[in-house]
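Subject: mismatched residue count in predicted assembly?

I count 608 residues in my input, but I want to confirm that the predicted structure covers every chain. Input:
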Amino acid sequence: MPLEEHVLAGVERIAVLGVGLIGGSLALALRRAGYSGRIAGYSRRTAESERALALGVVDEAAATPAEAVAGADLVVLGVPPGAMPALMAQIAPTCAGQAVVTDVGSVKAAVVAAGEAQFGGRFIGAHPIAGKERHGVAAAEAGLFRHSRCVITPTATSDPRALDLVRALWAAAGCEVLEMPPAVHDEALAVTSHLPHLLAFALMEQFAAHPRSKELSRLTGGGFRDFSRIASSDPALWADIALQNREALLQAVQIYQQTLERFAEQLRQGDQAALAAGFARAKRARDAVLATHSCSKTGSKHDG
Amino acid sequence: MPLEEHVLAGVERIAVLGVGLIGGSLALALRRAGYSGRIAGYSRRTAESERALALGVVDEAAATPAEAVAGADLVVLGVPPGAMPALMAQIAPTCAGQAVVTDVGSVKAAVVAAGEAQFGGRFIGAHPIAGKERHGVAAAEAGLFRHSRCVITPTATSDPRALDLVRALWAAAGCEVLEMPPAVHDEALAVTSHLPHLLAFALMEQFAAHPRSKELSRLTGGGFRDFSRIASSDPALWADIALQNREALLQAVQIYQQTLERFAEQLRQGDQAALAAGFARAKRARDAVLATHSCSKTGSKHDG
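Triage response: the counts match. Full output below for your records.
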């Protein structure tokens, strides 16, 4: 559908608060999709919003969140989940009564609760499952969301017009849009994203504490590098994400600990058949995940 | 150094027992380096050695291990570590008294002990830290070892001539050659390779057992795919490797369990500062590993 006939055609001003990798890539993707309205950006670090302006990612680098959202039809919050409530409170007085507010965070239940408390049905939570270990607007790219999925988490409170707009936003950015309740999203992402990040950080923490870590470095191959890639993610952001999804993540960690201990016990017992059977089940599960992606023609090189 | 002036120039026949990904890639790499002697291949599965012959990876598909090693100056064992002792016993009677015997396995102490018991100082353990999740000779490639490291594990028993030959073999294949005792290799690889494989298998085992694993698949991104890539490795081979390096691996697993539990406890306590500090240490450790590799101009996309 051409963008001019699109629900986004009525949007004259978009405010992106937190113009980093995700917010910046969304702005670029909308431009590429033909969005011709204004995009205002705000970042807590002035240098970052000025860089966004210099790179042509936004049309305007606002000095304050209020300045960015003034007159905006659509407000996209691209800050870490833990920083959302304060930012929402800050913009609420200047945010127009018709403006739709959405976010891009990796955790949904806590953010949606805060968003609905502040904006009612005009707040719609969203999470594009895309990213990479580099962050900041300099890493933004228009194609980041292509072949990716974006989860939108409406509730009974959601305003249908707001939901349509947020759906259209992510479709325009190139995503396949999925919908599910916030808690269902958080439970799933705890397993598919938050747990792997924690596991990769833990391996590298063990590595850091190893008495011969320098020599170990020379004995790593591509498997190690791929496994540990997500441990190069932003530490503060991921500590925030982990805590914002604490319950579901702790539940996933507990099951993981049991699974790993079962492998360890099979190793102690020298039970090669049991180990090989478990590894084979694991391999089949991974191959099935890959198949899901290739069937739907998605194969992003980025992480979520 | 041109290969004709090289220590390998005196080698007229090489036998590769187990012409899979690694053995096959070694044969191709030697050809590319200018080795002009004969390469005989044997695989337990006849189809595999016939495919190696058809692909031009070997000059000769031997019907038995004894036929392959007859008259060979250099014998390369490319079978899983647990299968080594039986294969060594099988070839010992026909293996010429001057032939140097080496292997390519991911575990060294157990294999070197078996090799020296059978061949004395003529056996030299080796482990090229390269690979990929695909296996079999069809996946072999001449460039697999370029920009990779190969660990050679001589002992006090090693014959200097045999050591020189194995060093020359891996240098010709394109590797940077490192030397260390077998136990030092095994302790390091437990952390850098065997543990990550176990962790990735455990995540996918948890995934397989999840009541909504199909829906989870749709909520995975590139981070998940990279983290879990090594869980697509050969399950039987990795169960064997894990058991052959059981003590060092169990030690690494124990430290990992403690590290993960420390993160889990910080999560329970809501200690965001401690989590962020640990994640930051982890990120620095990973960035340091990458730097080690880029300094030495190695950057293989493959795993070890």
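Residues 182-209 of chain A form the longest helix (28 residues). Marking this ticket as 'not a bug'.
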